[in-house]
Amino acid sequence: MASASSLSQPNQPPLLQSTPHIPRPLDRGGVLPFPRRRAAIVAAVILSTVPPHLLLPGRAWGGLVEFNVPLVRPGQTMEEAMGSVRWDARSMLEEVKELIDSESWEEAQKELRKGSGALRRDFYTIIQGKPGTERPALRKLFSELFNGVTRLDYAARDHDRELVRRCFEGVSASLFDFLSHI
């Protein structure tokens, strides 16, 4: 009977003898010296006891958690919003229409996002200034308009000419409908 050492080739270790695997602590296949759940609990306890200003010097604690994007411009009155909304809507539609016609999809998306953000705040200010009985209808129009803007954005991302044109017509119609109600 042949021994294990005689079956092996000269430059390789014997078949029955294996090299020991030494696990590294942070290696994916390695073994941690403690369970992950316990490590997560310890980290959470430690981080919860540290004052927030030490973790994020010079920044508010909520800066990473909440986005703090106001829907209403600070200090803006309903009259100011009414005055700027028609101009903003017209200029946004004209610029986006030009970019769609030239099939500059990325630029159309950027302009749409930039213009719709200002319109959203103005419309929200107008809705908040209206009597409570008119608000539900305006909120529905608001929702239809900005859902259409989102569909238009996705269609432009996909470079779908026909869908972009249909969505743009829908956004234009929703915008004029909203403007006629205010």
Biggest sheet features: none
| Tally of separate helices | 7
Low-confidence stretches: 59-70
| Cα separation of the termini | 99 Å
For the secondary structure, the number of strands is 0
Structure description:
- The structure is a single chain.
- By secondary structure, the protein is an all-alpha fold.
- The chain has two domains: 36 residues, no CATH class; 104 residues, Up-down Bundle (Four Helix Bundle (Hemerythrin (Met), subunit A)).
- The chain contains seven helices and no strands.
- Helix 4 packs antiparallel against helix 7 and helix 5 packs antiparallel against helix 6.
- The chain starts with a helix and ends with a helix.
- About 7% of the residues have low confidence.
Quick structural overview:
This protein has 2 domains: 33-68, no CATH class; 78-181, Four Helix Bundle (Hemerythrin (Met), subunit A), CATH 1.20.120.290. The chain has helices at 4-7, 36-49, 52-55, 78-101, 105-129, 135-157, 161-181.
